From TrEMBL:
Organism of origin: Paracoccus acridae
InterPro entries: Homeodomain-like_sf, HTH-type_TetR-like_transc_reg, HTH_TetR, Tet_transcr_reg_TetR-rel_C_sf, Tscrpt_reg_YcdC_C
Family annotation (Pfam families): TetR_C_3, TetR_N
Domain of life: Bacteria
Domain HTH tetR-type: 14-74
Coiled-coil positions: none
UniProtKB keywords: DNA-binding
DNA-binding region: 37-56
Protein name as annotated: TetR family transcriptional regulator
Length: 205
């Protein structure tokens, strides 16, 4: 990632940096980290290899930048869970946000899945630190609502895991989902009411 002590990027520098990250996202989401090369990223970005290496020291640097940005974006809806809100509506807002993110950002979801399947070598510190803290906070809110009888009692962390699995499946396995549903179906539109009904039945009191 960029050194925060450096002066702000110019408009052209920011544009080129964004082009590199967008090109890298396309390459990594298809080939994974091991299968991707700087040459492929440069071609996808429409820039020369030396230009790419001017902005990022290595393929690893680009990958870490993408993953960190993605994780921040992925966790934002969880951070917004309001302990003073209506419990069931807060959960459903989170489920809908995660499904919408899978619809809008399928490449990002697949990039994250690739990293996890490889043992998360570039995210070990984040997964054990910041991610755990955010999940612990959300789990504590959920547990508090359950203890107060405002949600049906379930293990809160596994509830969160289930939401991740059921929403991100539509991005990570989109080709399979569309093949099974056939023409004329929008899996994300159809999944919304199903997931809403499912979690209301599980958590309703």
């Amino acid at each position: 990632m960029a050194d925060q002590s450096q002066p702000p990027l110019t408009r052209i520098q920011q544009k080129n940096r964004d082009l590199i990250l967008e090109g890298a996202l396309s390459v990594f989401s298809v080939n994974g980290f091991r299968g991707a090369t700087i040459d492929q990223i440069a071609e996808a970005a429409g820039l020369s290899k030396p230009n790419v290496l001017y902005y990022f020291a290595s393929k690893d640097d680009i990958h870490k930048t993408l993953l960190t940005t993605l994780l921040d974006m992925w966790l934002a809806p969880m951070v917004r869970i309001d302990p003073d809100g209506d419990p069931l509506e807060e959960v459903m807002t989170y489920v809908r946000a995660k499904l919408e993110m899978s619809r809008r950002y399928p490449r990002e979801s697949r990039l994250f899945a690739y990293e996890i399947l490889q043992g998360a070598p570039h995210l070990t510190e984040i997964l054990g630190g910041g991610l755990r803290q955010i999940v612990d906070r959300a789990a504590a809110i959920l547990q508090g609502w359950m203890d107060d009888g405002r949600l049906a009692p379930v293990e809160p962390r596994h509830l969160i895991f289930s939401i991740w699995a059921l929403t991100q499946h539509y991005a990570d396995f989109e080709v399979q989902v569309r093949a099974v549903l056939g023409p004329g179906h929008d899996p994300f539109v159809e999944a919304g009411p199903f997931l809403d009904n499912l979690y209301r039945k599980i958590l309703g009191v």
